[in-house]
Amino acid sequence: MIIITVDDMRRAGICPRARLWFARHELDWRDFLRHGIELKTLRATGDVQHLIDRVEAAAQERLNG
User: pTM for this structure?
Assistant: First the structure.
């Protein structure tokens, strides 16, 4: 299980509009900021998969040191 953090999004260069994207998909932004979100939850939206790929790569870098 990969947990995506806000730092992963920053490293991936995802813009501040991520908050609006979370709202559009009824995902809890505040919970994400505190605890992160499972990669599979982001993938399940079926939206902007190319950006999710970048976020996943950033998370993998963090996890692999």
Answer: 0.90
- The predicted model gives 5-23 an average pLDDT of 91
Which H, E and C letters describe 3-63, residue by residue?
EECHHHHHHCCCCCCHHHHHHHCCCCHHHHHHHCEEHHHHHHCCCCHHHHHHHHHHHHHHH
Domain that holds residue 54: 3-64
Task: Name the residue with tokens 């990669």.
Answer: 39
Kindly report the average pLDDT of the chain as a whole number. Answer: 94
Predicted local confidence at residue 13, as pLDDT: 92
- The CA distances from residue 52 to 46, 55, in Å, are 10, 5
